[in-house]
Design a protein that fits this description.
four-stranded antiparallel β-sheet, alpha+beta, 40% helix
């Protein structure tokens, strides 16, 4: 905790110098509050304050005291006392109105100092709500159990909300939804429908966990297959190398609907305040979902309009439009709460009603039940939770449909054919639940979203002021005001490979953000953990100091004659998972076909999309077997352990 406090104080002092103000009292306040409230002050209380400031930036006016009840306010200026030196450079101290020319550095400071710990993972030992003078301090385990229980209750409540929304949807709304969906996606769905009819599908397995708990290579010998999947996606056609292995069909357990594995609902870290809920799919379902996903993405890339409006692997278009929106005010950014869990299966059925093979395939590969801890097995009204390979693309298509429904209602001439959409190809963009639409139509779009059961997150949706946020980047009046966030508590020993990697990544992010004094402090801390900490380029596999002054060289490679430097690198060894027989042949044939089709690997859409990352944010540091390594039949899956090793590597 002391190290986190030192980092906050250092950044506060740096930002105070940039903004020509003082942060001395702010540092004293944080030290006192952290002593009594612990990590929850940094991760929760400060984060709530930061969200209130973002709202004030969007509204153009400091809100009421109820927006920041955890801090004292100055009755003379009407502004909070905490971080007051920065606030007065952004808001008028007399009226609380946003200044005509606010200090951008002060805006960044306010966001950095309030939100930098909002995504930190809970350490094993931490002081949570309570104080050092006798009040109870809850253990990590108790708090984690309580928050997980609350998250599961909210998951059940969300399911009830989806059912209620389905029941309350009017026929005219459904008809409008169907019409708009057909205008947007009929051609796309027809291509995928044809692929399914002709058997032109290529499924795959990912390295992530499955509900039936098969290891990565065991999935290629799966012996459980749902009967409703068999009718459209036969086991013999897609789970055997060829029909010479037909005798293995006798070993396959064809599961009736009541025997199917339910998805396994779990939580993974998101913030200290709220965990993220995902669902682990059964092997057969995920295998079939990946087959549909390949065909969908291939059709998307060939559609000139949809590829501009919907994003799956590139967030930069969303960020570009968000910056333009902050500058001109013409574009609004929307964010949805529990977005994927509120996409109803009925929404998807309406979209696919005219494409029978695609509809049958999607419904057959959709899990109908979920095993929710504390609530047993329930039947699902939602289409799919995060963890399904089809969750991301279908939620994007549903949101795109609703966005254009809202836009069409505001136009004098409603959208009636594909040509009429082209004017919006540079003004509408959807990436998951990050939605960008013209500001003049935003209220109509919000109305359509809420009519279909979605909840617009007003604290993260912006359209009135000059602040915009999309795909992890924030902009104010055309300026990038994104911040660096601390993801883990600082490690205390070199053997904590994940912690060391995360700390080095944090140091380098702070360097490029211009916090050089804080970087110097972290450099000293890192050198106490790892003796060798050389200067390197961002592309180097080593854990090193990124710097604009160039890289460090200690020797030359004896044969390649390229620079080398000694340092630590993260090494991850894949677990042993031997595979032979028909499963090995099937896996090799699939890999050959995948390379032949040149299908890029979209890791965020695979079945391990939402599993927790144990290696920190700088994944380029990982040294391990490549994806096409010859040992894939011996070792496969996600590494169970990582370590850092000392060796000679390239500094660039």
């Amino acid at each position: 905790m002391k190290s986190l406090m030192s980092l906050w104080s250092s950044i506060a002092m740096e930002m105070a110098m940039r903004c020509c103000t003082s942060a001395t009292r702010d540092i004293t306040t944080v030290e006192r509050r952290v002593e009594h409230e612990g990590l929850s002050f940094l991760a929760i209380t400060l984060a709530d304050y930061g969200k209130a400031i973002q709202k004030w930036l969007d509204d153009g006016q400091v809100g009421p005291k109820s927006d920041a009840p955890a801090f004292r306010w100055d009755h003379r200026t009407g502004l909070p006392l905490f971080l007051g030196g920065f606030l007065t450079r952004v808001f008028n101290p007399c009226s609380g109105a946003l200044l005509d020319d606010p200090d951008i550095e002060a805006v960044i400071a306010l966001r950095q100092l309030t939100l930098m710990f909002s995504k930190i993972a809970l350490p094993r030992e931490s002081r949570l709500p309570g104080n050092s003078r006798g009040s109870p301090v809850l253990s990590n385990k108790v708090v984690s159990v309580r928050r997980e229980r609350n998250a599961m209750t909210e998951y059940i409540q969300c399911e009830q909300d989806v059912k209620k929304s389905d029941a309350e949807l009017f026929l005219r709304d459904k008809e409008e939804f169907c019409k708009m969906s057909d205008l947007l996606f009929a051609s796309l769905f027809t291509k995928v429908d044809r692929d399914i009819y002709e058997g032109n599908l290529l499924p795959k397995h990912g390295p992530g966990a499955t509900a039936d708990r098969l290891s990565s290579n065991e999935k290629w010998n799966q012996r459980a297959w749902p009967s409703r999947l068999e009718s459209i996606f036969p086991y013999g056609e897609y789970a055997l190398p060829n029909w010479s292995f037909y005798d293995q069909l006798d070993e396959v357990d064809i599961l009736e609907p009541g025997q199917e594995y339910p998805v396994r609902v779990i939580t993974v870290p998101k913030t200290l305040k709220t965990p993220r809920i995902i669902a682990i799919e059964p092997t057969a379902m995920q295998y079939a979902q990946q087959a549909v996903l390949r065909s969908l993405l291939d059709a998307f890339r060939k559609d000139d309009f949809l590829s501009r409006v919907i994003g799956f692997d590139d967030q930069e278009p969303n960020r570009h439009l968000a910056r333009l929106g902050s500058l001109s005010g013409d574009l609004a950014t929307l964010d949805l709460s529990e977005a994927s869990d509120r996409v109803s299966n009925q929404h998807v059925r309406l979209m696919l009603r005219n494409h029978p093979y695609l509809l049958e395939m999607v419904q057959a590969s959709r899990s109908r039940k979920a095993d929710v801890p504390g609530h047993g097995v329930i039947r699902l009204a939602k289409f799919a939770s995060m963890g399904s390979a089809l969750c991301f693309p279908f939620e994007a298509m549903v949101f795109t449909t609703l966005a254009f429904m809202g836009i069409s209602r505001e136009l004098s001439a409603p959208l009636c054919d594909r040509k009429s959409f082209k004017a919006f190809s540079r003004r509408v963009r959807v990436f998951g639940d990050d939605i960008i639409v013209p500001t003049r139509h935003v209220l109509s779009v919000v109305s359509r979203l809420e009519t279909f059961g979605f909840q617009v997150n007003r604290s993260k949706s912006f359209w009135t002021g000059r602040f915009r946020e999309s795909c992890g980047r924030e902009y104010f009046n055309g300026h990038d005001v994104s911040i660096v966030k601390v993801r883990q508590v600082f490690p205390t020993r070199r053997q904590d490979a994940s912690g060391v990697n995360s700390l080095v990544s944090l140091r380098n992010q702070l360097y490029w953000a211009g916090y050089w004094q804080s970087c110097a402090m972290l450099d000293n801390r890192i050198r106490k953990l790892i003796k060798h900490f050389p200067d390197v380029e961002p592309t180097s596999p080593l854990l090193g100091r990124e710097t604009a002054l160039g890289y460090q060289t200690e020797r030359i490679h004896p044969t390649l004659h390229s620079p080398l430097v000694r340092g630590y690198y993260v090494q991850a060894k894949l677990p042993k998972d031997p595979l032979d027989g028909a499963g090995a042949l099937l896996k090799c044939l699939h890999r050959m076909e995948s390379r032949k089709r040149h299908q890029p690997h979209l890791s965020f859409l695979s079945d391990d999309r939402f599993e927790p990352q144990i290696l920190g944010s700088r994944e380029t540091n990982i040294i391990g077997p490549p994806a096409d390594d010859e040992s894939h039949l011996e070792r496969s899956g996600r590494p169970k352990h990582v370590s850092i090793k000392l060796g000679w590597r390239s500094p660039f």
